[in-house]
Specification:
Elements lengths: L2 E3 L12 E3 L4 E3 L6 E3 L3 H8 L3 H12 L3 E4 L4 E5 L4 H15 L10 E6 L4 E6 L5 E3 L6 H7 L8 H6 L2 H20 L6 E3 L9 H6 L9 H4 L13 H11 L6 H10 L6 H11 L7 H4 L1 H7 L3 H17 L8 H10 L5 H9 L8 H10 L1 H18 L1
Antiparallel strand pairs: 1-2, 3-4, 4-6, 5-6, 5-10, 7-8, 8-9
GO molecular function: eukaryotic initiation factor eIF2 binding; GDP-dissociation inhibitor activity; GTP binding; GTPase activator activity; translation initiation factor activity
Protein name: Translation initiation factor eIF5
Family: Belongs to the eIF-2-beta/eIF-5 family.
Length: 383
Amino acid sequence: MATINIRRDVKDSFYRYQMPKLQSKIEGKGNGIKTVIPNMTDVAKALGRPPLYLTKFFGFELGAQTTIVADMDRYIVNGAHDAAKLQDLLDVFIRRFVLCASCLNPETELSINKKDQTITYDCKACGYRGEIDGRHKLTGVIVKNPPAKKSHKHKKASGHGEEDDAAEDELTRRIRKEAAELPTAETINEEDWAVDTSEEAVRARVQELEGNIENVLSLNDSRGEDDEADARYDEFGQWLELRLPMSDVDIYKKMKEENIHHKSKAIAVLVQRIIRPPFVGQFEKHAALFKKLCNSDKHERAILGGYERLIESTKLQHLDSVSKVLLEIYESDLVSEGTLEKWGAKPSKKYVSRETSKKIQESARPFLNWLAEASDESESEDE
């Protein structure tokens, strides 16, 4: 069976994380046409996720009904979909529901927080603990069908279970600390989804390609730009997510083609799409692109606003790195001193809730204090 790298952007032939290349078989015709994925179980096993998750994900992304007959190992998506299209969508699934945000390795195990119904993961490669973005509709499926817990009986059998746990916890704490300092038999049917998979129908459902993402990306609150439909920016964000990683040059070309390269709303969406946890080193990496796009205080504020929304989307998990990221933004000349000082003067609900804004600014205090002191020293020298 042909295998490929789980991360297809990694070209190393010795990359240790492999999976079977996705296969598809089209059956039926007319309104009864459907795509069967004969090796779904093998692919899912390589990713450490139940086949249910992958099948449902394809259904959501394609706006198509899915059918699973587990006893017969049949995983079906209505409509005709070639293997290449499904493989591209699988890349998105892997980025969102498999890879560790810190080390980008696929050695993650999911768990459900019963209290708030959030989905977290533990990375067995680097020790990082993160949270799955809850905006995609698949998260509802995962919560209702939680992954089976893996047995750890071998630890108890060794007679050193508690010592092993303590040693692992200490190692995990050390790894996290160092990483933070780096710069850089039942048939399951889908709900009553439309099964029209024509190009026109897929385009019409582009809003659902990444779930209810408009709840986070939508900027429809009369914030002073213009009143055109926010779907324009959401569609750009969704288009980008399906094609990452891609070069900043190609991103800029697409924004210019859509005539949104001068829009602050587009910049806020861009930040939320290409800046990845744990965020440190990411703005510097894309500095040339942001400089090309930003030419006003409003654009600079959009960079900060997009970053605020990223922090909020991770349930404030990365507050401890806010000052580092702001310093990076400042030293990369992406946001001016004046804009940063104005931003840090008082909480704002322009992009996030006032409470979240306050917490972010509290975390930014070391940087803001440094910026103020540096400004005072500069003024003294001028005198």
